[in-house]
From TrEMBL:
Naturally occurring in which organism (per UniProt): Hymenobacter gummosus
Protein name as it appears in the record: Group III truncated hemoglobin
Residue ranges that the Swiss-Prot or TrEMBL entry lists as coiled coil: none
InterPro entries (alphabetical): Globin-like_sf, Globin/Proto
Molecular function terms from GO: heme binding; oxygen binding
Superkingdom, taxonomy of origin: Bacteria
Length: 129
């Protein structure tokens, strides 16, 4: 995918932008050799429902929309919870934002994805003394 210059990119300002972000990101996930098997073969994600959940989650996260019902869990969002998978998920999300948007909400989206990583990602194991 070709990236537009940052001066041409606009910020995430409306629900249609959230939908485009989610659609572009999920397209990357379904094409990714590391993540695709987990979503498609193992978890057997039902994509129409998953996309709806993701639209609602990111709309609520970025705009405070009330379209989503309840809180999403890592499983609802399709977050892979193992190290390399989780790093790839974050990397693809960050790349999708950077390729399509620039501005405060775009930065907020990337920051919130990193917060999800910190909240739901693998926890470091402390060495025993």
């Amino acid at each position: 995918m070709k990236t537009a210059p940052a001066s041409v990119l606009t910020d995430i300002t409306r629900e249609a932008d959230v939908k485009m972000l989610v659609d572009q990101f999920c397209e990357k996930v379904t094409q990714d050799e590391l993540l695709s098997p987990g979503f498609n073969a193992v978890s057997r994600v039902y994509w129409p429902q998953h996309l709806f959940t993701m639209y609602n989650f990111w709309s609520a996260a970025l705009f405070g929309s009330k379209s989503g019902r309840g809180q999403s869990s890592p499983n609802d969002l399709g977050l892979p919870l193992e190290g390399p998978h989780f790093q790839r998920w974050i990397s693809l999300f960050d790349a999708t934002v950077r390729e399509n948007f620039a501005g405060p909400k775009a930065e907020e989206a990337k920051h919130k994805a990193l917060n999800l990583a910190a909240l739901f990602g693998p926890k470091p194991v402390l060495a025993a003394h």
